[in-house]
Amino acid sequence: MFALFKTYGIPSISSLLVQTNQLAGPPLTSSKRYADTGALLLEAVLNEPGSKRATEAIARINYLHDRWRDKGRGKGKGKISDEDMLYTLSLFALEPMRWVKKYEWRELSAIEICALGTLWKHLGHMLKVPFHPLPGYEEGWKNGGALAWMEELDVWSRAYQDKKMVPTETNHILAESTFNIILHKVPKPLHACGSKIFASVMEPRLREAMMYVDLLQHILTFAANKLTHSSIPSPPFLYPITTTFLISLRKVILRYASLPRYTPKTRKPIPSPTHPNRINLDRGRNHPWYILPTFRNRWGPGALLMRLKGEGELIPGNEKKFMPEGFLTKELGPVGMMGSGKEEMEEDMRRLEVEGGGGCPFVRM
Fold it and tell me: What pLDDT does 283 receive?
C-alpha cells in the first residue's frame, strides 16, 4: 500500500482526500476507508480478469470515483484530474518493481515486469484511466508491448512527480493519519521510533512533500519562531543506516540461507463460510474490519496481546460494528454511500463484460 501512500504527496490528491474527511477523520472512519480501499484493490487485482468478483470491484471503484471526475456524475466534477488518475495507476504498476529492486534479494525479471505491465494496462482501461499523455498512445505500443508501456509510464510518472509533488499541509495531515493507522498496534512509547523508521524509507522528495524537514532546517525554523506542528525533523542519520543494514542482512539470509517458498503467499479475500455472497479479509491494520473470527484470529498471539492490552473490542467477532460476517463489494465505500450506486454499477459491469473479458490489453485499445 506504499504506492497509495505516495499519492498523498500530490496536493491535488491530498486536498480532496482531506476535504472528504474519510482518511483524515475520526479513527473508525479512516480505518474503514483504509480497509475498504484495500478490499477493493485486492478484489480487482487478485481475482481472474473478467470474473464476477473482479468486475464488481472495478465497477464499485468507478462508481466511487466518477462523482469527482471530469466526466463524472455530480457535485465534485473535475476534482480528480485525468493526470492524477494516471499517476496513481503508475504507482501501483511501478512501485512493486522499484521496491523489489531496492529491498528484495533479486530484481524482477523482464517476464515479471511484462506481467505487471499487462495487468495494470488492463486495469487502467477498465478504470477509465486515460493514457494519451504517454508517447506510445497513438501507435498502441505495438513495438515493445508491456515493457515499452512500463518504460514510458516510468518516465512520465517521474516527470509528473517532479512537477507536482510539493509540500502542503494536507500532505502532512494524511501522512500523520496513515502513521496512526500503521502504528496502532505498536505500544505508544515506540510510536516516535516507528514514525522515524517509516520516514527513513521515504524518498527525499516524498519526505519533503510530507513536510518532514531535515534537522538543520528544523533548527533554523525553530530559531526563526516559525515552528509549526508540521515542521517535524526527518529521522536522524542512524535510522536510515540501521534500516539499510537490516534490509541488506535480510537479502543475504533470503538468498543464501532460506529454502524456496513452496506455496504462494497471497492476501486474496476469502468467501465467508457463514454468510453467502459476503467476503472476509484475512487480516486488518488497526481495526478488524471484515475479519473472520476464526480460532486463530481470536486466540492467536496477536489476539492474546490485545487482550493483555485491554483492547478486547479489537478482537474479530467481539464488535459487530466491524462486520465480522464480511463485506458486500457493492456496499464498500463511505458510510453515506452504502447501498447506493446499484444502477450505475450494473451499467458499468455490462461495459466491463464486453471490454474486459480477457485478451492482450495492447491489442485491445
Answer: 78
User: Is residue 87 within 8 Å of 95, Cβ to Cβ?
Assistant: no
pLDDT band at 167 (very low <50, low <70, confident <90, very high): very high
Strand partners, 280: 270
119, amino acid identity:
L
Residue 62's H or E segment, with its range, is helix 52-66
User: What's the residue count for the chain?
Assistant: 365
**What is the pLDDT, as a whole number, of residue 362?**
74
Spacing of C-alpha 185 from chain mean position: 19
The whole-number pLDDT of residue 233 equals 55
58, 123 in Cβ contact below 8 A? yes
Cα(282)–Cα(294) distance, rounded to whole angstroms?
10
C-alpha cell at position 29: 472512519
Residue 265's pLDDT band (cuts 50, 70, 90)? confident
Q: Which three cell numbers stand for residue 292?
A: 473472520
User: What angle separates helix 52-66 from helix 27-46, to the nearest 10 degrees?
Assistant: 130
Residue 263, all three cell numbers: 506455496
Neighbouring-strand partners of residue 62: none
Half-sphere exposure (CA, 13 Å, Cβ side) for 288?
Answer: 24
- Measured in whole angstroms, how far is the alpha carbon of residue 1 from the centre of its chain? 3
Q: Which helix (H) or strand (E) holds 88?
A: helix 82-103
The model's pTM: 0.88
Helices (H), 127-230: 145-164, 169-182, 191-200, 204-209, 215-223
Residue ranges of alpha helices (H) inside 201-308 are: 204-209, 215-223, 238-256, 295-299, 301-308
